[in-house]
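Handout, page 2. Input:
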Amino acid sequence: MNEEYRTKKIRKHIVFTGHVQGVGFRFRLRSSAIRFGCTGWCHNEWDGSVVLEIQGTEKDIDDTILAATSGRFIGIDNMAVKSMEVNEKEYGFRVM
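Output:
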């Protein structure tokens, strides 16, 4: 596997649509992000989507999303992903 996948820090902005509100999804994201050493935040939008900004290695971000979306009642219809600039001063993960 590519070494950058495991070591280079990146940041992504992701909008999840589907059955993502009222099912503990944001708290699963937070727990998974902490477990895999990612930073960032997530919040509910008025249209029923969940917005996530997450920073870490690509592998850690992928692992975080896989763990968070494996919830029994969570149903992801779509993930709109954009790359962002890394924020070197960020620490922790917040649910807003």
